[in-house]
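Consider the following input, taken from an annotated entry for Isocitrate lyase/phosphoenolpyruvate mutase family protein (Nocardiopsis eucommiae).
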Amino acid sequence: MERARAYREAGADVIFVEAPESVEQIELIAREVPGPKLINMFHGGKTPVVPRERLAELGYRLVIIPSDLQRAVIRACEDVLAAIVRDGDSSAVADSLASFAEREEIVRTTDYLALGT
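Applying the prediction step yields:
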C-alpha cells in the first residue's frame, strides 16, 4: 500500500496492486490508494472474482482479464481434437464452430488478399 501511494505521488497515471487475496483487500486498496486503479480478474487466480460493476463502484477504472479467453480457447481446441480422435472427424462438434465465412471475416482475409494486388 505504501509503495502504491508513493507511485501515485510520483505521478503514476494508474496504480496496480498485485494479487489482493480477498474482497476486503480489494476494498482496502480502493479506499487507501488515491487515483485511478487497475485490477487483474481471472478465474483460478489469487484474487477473488468480483463483478466489474462492483469494482467500478469501488473506484477501479481498468479491469483486465488476461487469461480467461485464452483458457476457453484451449478447452475448445481440446474438445474438437477429442471428437476427431474419437469419431474420425469433427461432425459431432460442428454446431459449436464458427462458420468458415465468419472466420474469413474475423481474420480479414479480403483485406489481406487485397494487399497482394
